[in-house]
Amino acid sequence: MALQDLLDLSTSRKKIGISEERINAVMPVIRKYTAFWREYPDLFVDFLVRGTRTE
Fold first, then answer.
1. Backbone angles phi, psi at 52, to 5 degrees
2. Cα-Cα-Cα-Cα dihedral sign, residues 5, 11, 16, 22
3. Tens place of pLDDT for every residue, the chain, 55 residues?
4. 3-state SS class at 23
5. How far apart are CA 27 and CA 31, in angstroms?
6. What are phi and psi of 12, to 5 degrees?
7. Which pLDDT belongs to residue 35?
8. For residue 23, how far is the Cα from the chain centroid?
9. How many distinct helices (H) and strands (E) make up the chain?
10. Cα gap 25→19, rounded to integer Å
11. Half-sphere exposure in the Cβ direction for 9 (13 Å, CA)
12. Predicted model pTM
């Protein structure tokens, strides 16, 4: 079996990992979230707690 045949068996082409370019692309959003959480730390705690609950 050729290498290309083995690669074609994979249905997922999702990128995994972090590169500097990918981080720089979302940096404006990261800055907005950071500013929001600094302004409302109580909402940040609620956000974290909500993620751990099983309802």
1. -95, -15
2. positive
3. 677 776 676 666 666 778 888 889 999 999 999 999 999 999 999 888 886 666 5
4. helix
5. 6
6. -100, 130
7. 94
8. 10
9. 3, 0
10. 10
11. 5
12. 0.52
Please say whether the beta carbons of 43 and 37 come within 8 A: yes
CA dihedral (38, 42, 43, 44) positive or negative: positive
Q: Please report, for residues 16, 26, 27, 28, 54, the alpha-carbon distance to residue 32 in angstroms, rounded to integers and kept in the order given.
A: 24, 10, 9, 6, 28
Rounded Cα distance, 40 and 51, in Å: 17
CA distance to 9, 10, 39, 47, per residue, from 35 (Å): 44, 40, 6, 15
What's the rounded Cα separation, in Å, for the pair 2 and 33? Answer: 46
DSSP 3: H
